[in-house]
């Protein structure tokens, strides 16, 4: 009877084992990378809105403060989406015939809200409060990016738990004085100044990474 | 061989199970769509005659009843710069950025007619709007309206102060600066 295994079988077995192990590792690495990629998290995405609203024009060009429209950001968990009346405060006089604003005028005359798409949607098991961030030194820019340079609103963060924890573990680099919360392009403070702000706002850094802080 | 297929199938199903239902729980987030509710909206407009829980029920006072201090003026300045400055300008002269882009110019807050108006007048204009200016009652709370009115008084004073108003010490400092 002939030999079942040729001498080269040793090599084949080795290749299969080592190759299989490498493949398993590669698949794992790719799965992790994929799950954190913008494709899955939606970071960098630009949802299509009923009106192509430009933060670049309103914030960067006109210098309108974030709170002019997002009025509840410093007194509620929800930043607030402006009502149509807020748009019409200016657009009853400016660009009154612009086609792209037709849905705004329709909403106003028919008393029907504009259906803006949510750009940042946290999972329902996460508790998030805008008020406790902006009233304690975290600027809008930290999470939402340079809105003054966004012609269309783009989601700037992955909203993954790691992303939240990166700041909750070490909040001081993201802190600003209360007068600069809505400023865009704020220059980083020195470590001493940031440290002083942690004390100024009374931030209990050890509490920020407790489960209950975000999952309640 | 079939056993391997089952294992593969189980792994695919396990991956499919990663869809987290607890990420979308059966409750409404702020302003979420609600197909079963009128207007497809979960945020309901309040019934006519609704009174907010923290609303002040007494009639609006004729003048400022809040304590006039630095904190109130700073709050007024912040709200003024957010809500008023786009048209009235940081200085109150009525040349804000939105006016520069074609919005009808408001009168300067420093004109004698407006300097003579009581603070309640500013409160009422913020509440009800005036001319092409819309009401800001949904955006600026009653206490904030008083703070803005008080700040506008300070702004007006800043353009019409005279050295007579200074104390001797302050005047001496001013003369040194010059």
Could you estimate the helical fraction of the residues of chain B in percent? 40-55%
State the largest interface: A-B, 26 and 28 residues
Can you tell me the overall shape of chain B? elongated
Let me know the CATH homologous superfamily of the domain at 70-161 in chain B.
Cytochrome c-like domain
Overall shape of chain A: extended
User: What's the pLDDT, averaged over the residues of chain B?
Assistant: 90
**SS element count, helices of chain A:** 11
Element string of chain B (H = helix, E = strand): HHHHHHH
Instruction: Give average pLDDT of chain A, whole number.
Output: 94
Number-wise, the strands of chain B total: 0
CATH topology call of the domain at 70-161 in chain B: Cytochrome Bc1 Complex, Chain D, domain 2
Which descriptors would you attach to this protein?
A: 216 residues; mainly alpha; 3 domains; 11 helices; B: 178 residues; 46% helix
Question: How does this model look, in words?
Answer:
The complex is a heterodimer of chains A (216) and B (178). Chain A is built from 11 helices and no strands. Chain A has helices at residues 9-35, 38-41, 55-61, 66-69, 84-91, 102-110, 130-134, 140-144, 161-169, 191-201, 211-214. The N and C termini of chain A lie far apart (72 Å). Chain A has 3 domains: 9-35; 55-81 and 119-214, no CATH class; 83-115, no CATH class. Chain A is extended. Chain B has a domain at 70-161: Cytochrome Bc1 Complex, Chain D, domain 2. Helices cover 46% and strands 0% of the residues of chain B. Chain B is built from 7 helices and no strands. In chain B, helix 2 (70-88) packs across helix 6. The A-B interface holds A 62-65, 67-68, 71, 77-78, 81, 83, 85-86, 88-90, 92-94, 112-113, 115, 121, 123-125 and B 20, 22-25, 27, 29-31, 33, 39-41, 81-83, 86, 97-98, 101-104, 132-134, 138-139.
């Amino acid at each position: 009877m002939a030999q079942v295994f040729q001498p080269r079988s040793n090599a084949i077995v080795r290749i299969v084992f080592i190759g299989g192990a490498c493949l398993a590792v590669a698949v794992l690495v790719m799965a992790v990378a994929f799950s954190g990629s913008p494709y899955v998290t939606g970071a960098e995405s630009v949802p299509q809105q009923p009106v192509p609203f430009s933060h670049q024009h309103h914030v960067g060009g006109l210098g309108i403060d974030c709170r002019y429209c997002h009025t509840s950001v410093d007194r509620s968990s929800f930043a607030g989406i402006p009502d149509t009346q807020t748009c019409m405060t200016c657009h009853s006089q400016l660009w009154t015939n612009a086609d792209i604003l037709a849905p705004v005028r329709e909403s106003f005359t028919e008393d029907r809200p504009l259906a803006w798409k949510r750009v940042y949607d946290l999972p329902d098991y996460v508790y998030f409060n805008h008020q406790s961030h902006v009233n304690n030194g975290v600027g809008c820019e930290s999470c939402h990016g340079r809105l003054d340079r966004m012609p269309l609103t783009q989601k700037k963060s992955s909203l993954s738990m790691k992303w939240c924890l990166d700041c909750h573990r070490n909040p001081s680099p993201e802190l600003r004085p209360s007068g600069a919360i809505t400023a865009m392009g704020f220059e980083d403070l020195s470590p001493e100044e940031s440290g002083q702000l942690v004390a100024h706002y009374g931030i209990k850094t050890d509490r920020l990474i407790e489960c209950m802080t975000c999952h309640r | 061989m079939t056993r391997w297929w089952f294992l593969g199938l189980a792994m695919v199903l396990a991956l499919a199970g990663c869809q987290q239902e607890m990420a979308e729980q059966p409750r409404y987030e702020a302003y979420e769509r609600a197909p079963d509710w009128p207007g497809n909206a979960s945020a309901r407009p309040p019934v006519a005659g609704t009174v907010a829980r923290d609303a002040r029920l007494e009639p609006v006072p004729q003048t400022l009843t809040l304590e006039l201090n630095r904190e109130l003026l700073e709050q007024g300045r912040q709200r003024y710069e957010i809500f008023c400055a786009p048209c009235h300008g940081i200085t109150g002269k009525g040349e804000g950025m939105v006016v520069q882009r074609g919005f009808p110019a408001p009168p300067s807050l420093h004109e004698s007619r407006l300097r003579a108006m009581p603070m309640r007048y500013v409160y009422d204009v913020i509440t009800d709007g005036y001319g092409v200016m819309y009401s800001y009652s949904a955006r600026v709370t009653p206490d904030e309206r008083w703070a803005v009115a008080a700040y506008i008084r300070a702004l007006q004073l800043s353009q019409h102060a005279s050295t007579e108003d200074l104390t001797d010490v302050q005047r001496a400092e001013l003369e040194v600066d010059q």
